Amino acid sequence: RSSYSCRYFVLPCCFFDFHGKYSRRQSKKTQYREYLDFVAQVGFVCGFHVEEDCLRIPSTKRVSLIGKNRTYPPAESALIDKQITQFINNRRTCAVFKCDRRVGFNHKDCCDGVCEEVGTELPEDKTETAGTTWMPGFQPREKVEQVRNCASLPREFVDDVVLNVANLLLNATPQKSYPDTQGENTSTWSQGESLSLKEVAEHLNKETLKRLKSEYGGLQTLLKNNHQVFEVLNGRVHIRDWRKEKPSSKTKPEAKRRLSAEAFKTRLCWFFIHHPDGCSLPSESCPYAHGTEELR
């Protein structure tokens, strides 16, 4: 209904109608096939030639429906808009009757899925005027969705929070030190203490917490995003010890192993730069670059 030149692509997934969950009406079809037919019917009522395609994606719900061309000339737009309004209103009427089963109402057209052919319309005060309102309470998405998973926060702000939290864990007492088992070096590498998310938050300033509060997941999401440095388990924050990370169980072909070995060092190692003991892994074993000369 946005415009005559509108085209659409839809990948049906969850079974919903205009006003709630979609109710099955034909036992001879699978629920998925019946729902696809319903979505195609909506496109047809809205005046589209509806095409069906199957996507190459790893999902059980991969049938898409496409509307590229109209079934009517532009001059008939007002008439089709009236038809759409009646279709929506009739499905609302059907939904109300289906919910109230005590009256024993048997709505034939509601059951066979051709609700647009129902002769009865809603009272005049309940009927929408064509072209004025799509549906009562309908709120489309904003054109630009705000990213709120901490990914859009300034890099300087994120780096500052990461450094503050890491120093908080390293300076907590008592510290945990582990022997450096890599090579001949017998020095110890400090992993610091683990603290709860609440304890970490209590040590951050109000401005930082206020900024994180507007993000989904807040502090926990930011720390999980920085998985090179932190590990968040059961609500507690730990500094990640890369010596304990298990190597991938999947065996890659020789060509892919060679390619990844040449290309994986695209970021600097945080521990090499900031940790008082440096990185717990030698340069050849660390997946991150120990210095700019190792960056690829």
- If you compute it from the alpha carbons, what radius of gyration comes out, rounded to the nearest whole angstrom? 29 Å
Number of helices: 9
Biggest sheet details: 3 strands, antiparallel
Mean pLDDT: 80
**Overall structural domain count:** 2
What is the element string, with H for helices and E for strands?
EHEEHHHEEEHHHEEHH
Low-confidence stretches: 99-132
Q: How are the strands of the biggest sheet laid out side by side?
A: 1-3-2
DSSP helix fraction: 25-40%
Structural class: alpha+beta
Strand % is: 5-15%
What is the approximate shape?
Answer: elongated
Total E-strand runs: 8
How far do the termini sit from each other? 50 Å
Short structural summary:
This is tRNA (uracil-O(2)-)-methyltransferase. The protein has nine helices and eight strands.
How is this structure best described in words?
Belongs to the TRM44 family. There is one protein chain. The chain is α+β, with helices and mostly antiparallel strands and 296 residues long. It has two domains: 8-96, no CATH class; 150-172 and 190-294, no CATH class. The chain is 33% helix and 11% strand. It has nine helices and eight strands. The chain has helices at residues 31-45, 77-99, 108-112, 155-171, 197-202, 206-213, 218-225, 254-263, 270-274; strands spanning 8-10, 48-54, 63-70, 177-179, 188-190, 195-196, 230-233, 236-239. It is elongated and about 80 Å long. It starts with 7 loop residues before the first strand and ends in a 22-residue tail after the last helix. The model is unreliable at 99-132 (pLDDT under 50).
